[in-house]
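Give me the fold.
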Amino acid sequence: MSIPEPIVQLQRQLDQFRSAQPHRAKIPEGLWQSAVELSRPHGLYAVADPLRLDYVGLKRRLEGVSKLEKRKKVASAGFVELIASQPAAAECVIEFESKGGGKMRIQWKGSGAPDWWSLLRAWREAER
């Protein structure tokens, strides 16, 4: 079975790198990234074997890239507006506790929330 041309090209780059480096030198990230990209369409074994790369290491890198891409997709969400079905009078409680043991509790009823950020800032200043 013949090796696809993109894998052969990366094989040449890896051979060139390995011939110029001491035995078992760390492979540059760019070459690993190229191997990861090739493993998507060609498969892990089809890339790892001819390139003499660690199969498990390549698999971990591929999975790591996939997880990063998923996180980027999730993180790319912009503004999300939540609209209550009924503007009912809700009750909310926020509690803060400082390292020194001081506590602050904010409790309110109604649709408008207090400026709790200003309250927290003032409380922290008073704690100093």
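The mean pLDDT is 78.
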